[in-house]
From TrEMBL:
Transmembrane domains' residue ranges: none
A Gene Ontology molecular function term of the record: cyclin binding
Organism (species): Falco tinnunculus (Common kestrel)
Job of this protein: E3 ubiquitin-protein ligase which accepts ubiquitin from specific E2 ubiquitin-conjugating enzymes, and transfers it to substrates, generally promoting their degradation by the proteasome. Independently of its E3 ubiquitin-protein ligase activity, acts as an inhibitor of CPSF3 endonuclease activity by blocking CPSF3 active site.
Protein name: E3 ubiquitin-protein ligase E3D
Top-level taxon of origin: Eukaryota
Reactions listed under catalytic activity: S-ubiquitinyl-[E2 ubiquitin-conjugating enzyme]-L-cysteine + [acceptor protein]-L-lysine = [E2 ubiquitin-conjugating enzyme]-L-cysteine + N(6)-ubiquitinyl-[acceptor protein]-L-lysine
């Protein structure tokens, strides 16, 4: 085990695009009780101090280039930091929301919160992406003739499933009467009968919008497997960010609730990150860990996660109102609509993720912020990781 004052864990942030990595060795004390020796091999990390040694094997597919190590430094409260290159970058893994639904297959929609069946054994003949939410405005801008679709809306037939940025659009059929109920205070909200969680909203008398953060879709022959709420929200939001940034070349997002209020402003920094984290031998919960209660705190395991990194600012209780108003009028900012309760959950997840990072990685300086926030040039912006949870694996050191 590590000597007194050493946590024994590490965080490795790998960038596939630049084939580089940032290694953070964690310890609890302000200064370790004895000199620390850090050894970086292609497939493992070792930390020696006071006659003891702690080693961790890297996951398969991750290989470092030891000769490229540079910039070793100790940061107050943040452990030892070291940058290195990659000998072999991990492969890219791409998963999109559209891959979760395919035509000519039967699916069951479950409430993510309680597992109750929302849509039972539905076979879709067509699974089609909806046009951009501002498609009507684009037609007005680019067409020289009046918009023929100005008063038209797209409604799916019984065998259709339309995919929006953050929702699935389905013909309600009998589900609206049997498995769901409308909120008494707001008749557009669709609520799960069992747990009373909002899962969507009515678009018309025969069309329901289900939010991707509120339902789990499984093939009819499969079974429901519960997923922790925080994992699921992170996974869905991360996939939305990656897909939209790729399809629409936009990297700024305004998270809004179904009540129309802005909750979070987000800037996507990168989506090619692979995080490797070891909790080491520390029993303390004060040392930062990005995996939180999902990551096993016992000695030994190494977890790997595909992740996206974002900058964010909260907008609740009139915070950053001027900034939110500026983004509202900016055509380069893409809105993301979720249930208001989910927006608050997401904000809490972001805050906890930020607090789990080393202090030196929690914010970016005002110069960098100034590049994209012209009215907030002196304010630090919080930094956090949002994980694509469906790609989670665990490895154990020998």
């Amino acid at each position: 085990p590590f000597p007194c004052g050493m946590a024994g864990g590490f965080l490795l942030e790998i960038r596939r695009g630049t084939q580089s990595a940032l290694l953070v060795i964690r310890y609890e004390a302000e200064r370790p009780s004895s000199p620390v020796d850090v050894s970086v091999a292609a497939d493992r990390l070792e930390v020696r101090s006071g006659g003891s040694c702690e080693a961790a094997a890297l996951p398969a597919g991750v290989r470092l280039a030891p000769s490229s190590c540079r910039g070793l430094q100790r940061l107050p409260g943040g452990g030892l930091h070291l940058r290195t290159g990659l000998r072999r970058p991990p492969p890219h893994v791409v998963f999109t929301l559209r891959e979760s639904l395919k035509p000519q297959k039967n699916y069951v929609f479950y409430c993510q919160s309680c597992g109750d069946i929302i849509v039972k054994d539905r076979k879709f003949l067509r699974v089609l992406p909806l046009p951009s939410e501002n498609w009507s405005a684009l037609i007005e801008e680019w067409c020289c003739h009046p918009n023929p679709f100005a008063r038209s809306t797209l409604h799916p037939q019984h065998d259709d499933c339309f995919l929006g940025d953050t929702f699935f659009l389905l013909n309600s059929g009998k589900e609206s009467h049997k498995d769901l109920e409308k909120s008494e205070c707001e008749n557009t909200r669709v609520i799960c009968k069992r747990c009373k969680t909002m899962v969507g909203e009515t678009v018309s008398s025969d069309t329901i919008k289900y939010y991707v953060t509120e339902v789990i879709i499984r093939p009819s022959e499969g079974s429901f497997t519960p997923t922790p709420r925080s994992q699921f929200i992170q996974s869905m939001v991360a996939q939305c960010l990656v897909e939209l940034s790729s399809a629409k070349s936009t990297f700024r997002f305004a998270v809004k609730g179904d009540n129309g209020k802005s909750y979070i402003l987000m800037w996507l920094l990168n989506s090619d990150t692979l995080l490797v984290e070891s909790s080491g031998s520390s029993s303390s919960h004060s040392v930062f860990t990005l995996f939180g209660d999902i990551f096993m705190p016992s000695s030994g395991p190494v977890g790997t996660w595909n992740a996206v990194k974002v900058l964010y600012q909260p907008c609740i209780k009139s915070r950053n109102k001027d900034l939110a108003d500026a983004w509202e009028d900016d055509i380069g900012v893409h809105p993301l609509k979720f249930p208001s309760e989910t927006c608050l959950e997401l904000l809490l997840i972001l805050s906890l993720s930020t607090s789990s990072l080393p202090p030196s990685l929690r914010c970016m300086n005002s110069f960098q912020v100034k590049i994209f926030v012209r009215k907030c040039c002196c304010r630090h912006v919080k930094l956090c990781f949002v994980f694509i949870m469906c790609l989670k694996t665990y490895y154990f050191s020998k």
